[in-house]
Amino acid sequence: MPELELLRPDHAPALLAFERENRAYFAASIPDRGDDYFHRFDERHRALLAEQEAGLCYFHLLVGTEGEVLGRVNLVDVADGCAELGYRIAERAAGQGLATGAVRTMCDLAADRYGLTVLRAETTLDNAASRTVLARTGFTVVGETELDGRPGLSYRREIARP
């Protein structure tokens, strides 16, 4: 069963492989990271770890039994008990309920480990899979937005702290 793991330095090779293998798949529904992301991956990875260490963001990987990255689930812009949720699942793992399970787990972690009370998320209108995951995990639509020039929706979920 895949597990959510907090991003570590040794995740870099598997994470880069995940991003490369799924680049075209992701670009069909979310903005592409661009070539610079891949050319400067090691530098970016170190910067993410520094942001995480400072408590500004929490980056998690959904890791399979062979150590392969099957997805990412991140909490960014952490402040005042709130954070923005973002996630992406590998094409080969899509449609198996992994995103729904990982987002549910992240909601629990956000409350229990990170002390958060509200999560926000956004997705484009044409990303039906992401809209379904957010609905299944208790997020509600709170408004309209635009993402990279595409119409989208903003979501919010209150999360309970223990």
From TrEMBL:
List, for all copies, the residue spans of the domain called N-acetyltransferase: 2-160
Write the record's keywords in alphabetical order, separated by commas. Answer: Transferase
Looking up PROSITE patterns in the UniProt record yields: GNAT (PS51186)
Domain of life, source organism? Bacteria
Q: Which SUPFAM superfamilies match?
A: Acyl-CoA N-acyltransferases (Nat) (SSF55729)
Is Transferase tagged as a keyword?
Answer: yes
What would be an example GO MF term here?
acyltransferase activity, transferring groups other than amino-acyl groups
Q: Which Gene3D superfamilies match?
A: 3.40.630.30
* PANTHER family noted in UniProt: GNAT FAMILY, PUTATIVE (AFU_ORTHOLOGUE AFUA_3G00765)-RELATED-RELATED (PTHR43792)
The name this protein carries in UniProt is Ribosomal-protein-alanine acetyltransferase
Query: Organism, per UniProt?
Result: Streptomyces himastatinicus ATCC 53653
